[in-house]
Amino acid sequence: MTEPSASPDSAPNLVQRLAACGPSPSGDDVFDVFVEWVAERGIALYPAQEEAILELLSDRHVILETPTGSGKSLVALALHLIGLAKGARSFYTSPIKALVSEKFFDLCAAFGADKVGLMTGDATVNRDAPVICCTAEILANMTLRAGEQAAADFVVMDEFHYYGDRDRGWAWQLPLIGLPHATFLLMSATLGDTTKIEESVAAFTEREIVKVRSGKRPVPLEFSYSEEPLLETLHALVSRNRQPIYLVHFTQREAAEQVQGLMSVDFATRATKEAIARELKGFRFDTPYGKDMERFVRHGLGLHHGGLLPKYRLMVERLSRMGLLSVICGTDTLGVGVNVPIRTVMFTQLCKFSGDKVGVLGVREFKQIAGRAGRKGFDDHGYVVAQAPEHVIENKRLEKKAAETGRKKFVKKQPPKKGYVAWNEETFQQLIDSPPETLESRFRVTHGMIVDLLQREDNAYVPGGGYRRLIALIGRCHEAAGARSRLRKDARQLVKSLMRSGVVEAVPASFGRGQSLVVKEALQREFSLTQTLSLFVVEALAAFPPERPDYALDVVTLVEAILEHPRAILARQEDKLKTEAMARMKAEGVEYEERVAALEKIGYPKPHAELLYALLDAFVERHPWLQGENVRPKSIMRDMVERWMSFNEYVKELGLERMEGVLLRYLSQGFKVLVQTVPDEAKTDEVIDVVAYFRTTLGRVDSSLVQEWERMVVGEAAEAGPGQAPPPLDISRDKRTFYARIRAELHALMKALSEQDWEEAAATVAQDPEAEEGEGWDAARFREALEPFVEEYGAVAFDHRARHADKTRITPDGRLRWAVTQLLSDREGETGWAVEAVVDLREDQAPEGPLVRVLRIEG
C-alpha cells in the first residue's frame, strides 16, 4: 500500500466528488467517496484504518497507534473529509513546521488549494479555509483565546507522543481540555498506556473515545546487533542489498565526521554515480559547505541534520527517495517524520546526551527512529542494526589477534570517560521488547497563557471571567490532584503580578454579581507574550533617535537582543577575537601570563550591552510579569551589515561550514522581527536598506522566504476566505521597499565586482530566460566585460559604509519595467563607466530570484 499521491489535473478531487453526493452527504456517502478515491490510487485500507474511519464517522474520538508506514495519514485525510461533508472546520497539527508544510501541500492536492490553509507562525496562507495545517502551539493559543467558541470541530494531532515532551507537552494537552465540541484523532506509532488520557477526554467531551491499535507493520522489521567494525557491518549490509542505510548519530559533528570517513569507500556503482550527476544538473552547491556536500552525494553518500541548509537536506531526501544514496549519515531527527525513505536504520550508539545527562535511549525514542526502516511499496523487510560500543569491538579484535598469535595477555581499550553510558546486546533487546513509556502530563501555567486566556472577548459576560476559566482549565488538566493544587496556587500569584503591573484589571460582570478579570483594552492589540520581549523592542526604540548616525545598526542590535543565542556561532566569534588578540600581543612582546589574563576578559561582541540591560530593568518595572527575563546582546546581524558581508563570506570567516543552517535560521528569525515587530514609522530609509540587504542575503541562500517576506512588507498578505485564491502579488507597489531591494542587489553586485569575484557576480543577477547559450552573464562574461576597466582604473571601488544611492538610478520604463543604471567608480571617484540593467516584472510580478538583469557594462 502507498500513501495517496496528487491526482491528475483532469480527475476530480475529493471535494468535487463529495459535492456530487448533494448538499448533505451522509456518513455512508463520505465513506464510499473516500474508499473509491483511494482505490483509484491502488490503495486497499488496512483493518485498523477502516476501523478508525468508521469510529470517526460514528462521532467518536480515536487514538490511533499503528506502526510507521501503516497509513495513519490516510485516516487523518478521512477525518478532514468528514469535516468538509458537515460544513465544519478541521485542523491538522504536528510538532515541526516542515511536517506541517508537507501535509499542507498533500491536502491541497487532495481537496484543492482553496480549501486548505497554513498557519506556522512564520507563514499564514488562506487562514479562513475549512482545513487548516498548523503547529500544535498555534491551535493551543487559539484554544486559550476562544475555548468552546473556537472554530475547530475536528482535530488531528500527529506525533501525539509529544504530549509528554517536557517543554512543549502543554500545547498537546490544551485542546483536549479546552475544546469540548471537537472530535479528536490522536496519532502516533509509540503511545504506550493512554488510559488516563482516554478517561479525561471522554469525561470532558461526554463522548466515547476508542483506541485503535495494531502492532502489525506493513514492512516487518528484523533486528541485529553487530560487534564487527562499522565499515565491515556496512559492507555486509550492502552485499545483502540492504541499502539505503541511515547511520544514526546524536550530534551533527559526529554525523559530518562519519560521512567524511566513508569517502574512502565506494558504495555506489558507476551507473549510480552517473544517475546522481544527471539529477544534480543545475543544482547550485554555492555555499562554503556546498563543495563538501557535492563530494558526498556524487560519491553516493548523504548527510542530513539540522545544521545544513534546507536546500541540501531536501536534495538528500530527493536522492534518497530515488534510491541513489547507499549510506546517509544523519542525526536522530529521523524519528520526527523526516522524509528520508530507507531500508536499514543503523544505530552507531544507544546512548545520548539529553540536555541534563548522558543516558541510554528511551524506548519511545528508539522505536520512533527504528520504525523508519523499511520502505512501504519497495521493501519486504526493514532492518535495524545496533553497533556495539567501539571499545568492545576493538577489544574483541585484540582478543582474536592474541589468540591467533598465542599471547595470553593484551592491553584492553577502555570505554570513553565522557559522553558515554554502557550498553550491550541485552540493552538492545530490552529496547526492542519493552513498550513505550507511559505518557506523562506536562501541563504548566505561564504569564503568556494567562494573558491569552484573559483576552477572550466574552470574559466580561462570565461571572469570574477569565480567572474562573483559568481555574476550571487547571481543574481539567491531566495532572495529579497535588500538582493541580500547586498549579492553582501558581496561577493566583501570576494573576496578582499581572494586576499589580496594570496589565490585568477587574471589571464588574455584565450580569449577576462579582467581577471579571480582563486584559486592559489599551493593550489588547499590541500586547502579546508569544515573543516574550517583542514589546521591549518597540518601547526601547525611543532610546535610539532616528537622527543618530548608526540608528539603523542600533535597530538591528535591538532585534538581536531578543533572539535566542546561537551559541556555536558566538563561540566562533569569541575564538576569532582571542586568536587575533593573542597574535597581536605576541607581536608586541606581551608576557605569557599577561596574555592569558587578557584573553580571559575577551568575549563575543555585545553592542550597547549596559544600555540594553538598563532599558530592560526599566521595562520590567513597568511589566513585572517579565521578571527573570533578560536581553541577550550580541552582534551577528550587525556585524554582517557593518561590513556588508555576504552569507558565504561570513561562513568562511568564522568557520561555520558545518553550521550553515544554524546561521540561516538565526538570520531568518532576526529578519522576521525586523519586518514584523519594528514599527513602520521607525523604519528610516537606512533601516529599509538594511531590511533589503537581509532579504537579498537570505534569498541568495534560500529563496523560500522571499514571497512570504514580500507579502508582509507590501501588505498584501492573503486574506481570502474559503473558495477564494490569494490575491496576486505585485512587489513594485511599495516603491520604497521595491527600490531598496533593487539597490541591495546592485550593491551585492558592486561588492562582487570590487573583489573580482566573477562567480559571485553572476549569482547576484537575474539571467535572461531567452538568452542563447553563452550569451548570459556568467563569470566569464563579467570577467571579459571588466578587463578594460581593471586595466585602466584597477579595481571597482565599493565602500560598504556608504549607501551609494547617489550612484544608482532607477527610472520607470513602461508598465512593470524599470531601467537601471549603476555608476562605477575607482578610488579616485567617477570613471564614466556604468552597469546598464533592467528590472522587468511584466511576466512575473513577484519573482523569487534576483530582479536585476544586466544588459551591458561599458564606459
State which percent range the strand residues make up.
5-15%
Major beta sheet, specifics? 8 strands, mixed
Number of helices: 32
Q: Which class best fits the helix and strand makeup?
A: alpha/beta
Give the total of beta strands. Answer: 22
Strand order, main sheet: write it out.
4-3-5-2-6-7-1-8
Structure keywords:
859 residues, alpha/beta, 44% helix
What topology emerges from the helices and strands here?
Blueprint: H1 14-19, H2 27-39, H3 47-57, E1 61-65, H4 72-85, E2 90-94, H5 97-111, E3 116-119, E4 124-125, E5 131-135, H6 136-146, E6 154-157, H7 169-178, E7 183-188, H8 195-205, E8 209-213, E9 221-226, H9 230-239, E10 245-249, H10 252-261, H11 270-279, H12 290-298, E11 301-304, H13 310-321, E12 327-331, E13 344-347, E14 351-353, E15 358-360, H14 363-370, E16 382-387, H15 390-405, H16 425-433, H17 447-454, H18 465-476, H19 481-501, E17 504-508, E18 515-519, H20 534-540, H21 551-561, H22 567-587, H23 592-600, H24 609-622, H25 637-642, H26 647-654, H27 660-676, H28 685-701, H29 706-714, H30 735-754, H31 758-763, H32 779-793, E19 808-812, E20 817-826, E21 829-840, E22 853-858
Parallel strand pairs: 1-7, 1-8, 2-5, 2-6, 3-5, 6-7, 9-16, 10-12, 10-13, 11-12, 13-16
Antiparallel strand pairs: 3-4, 14-15, 17-18, 19-20, 20-21, 21-22
Helix pairs in contact: 2-4, 3-4, 6-7, 6-17, 18-19, 27-28, 28-30
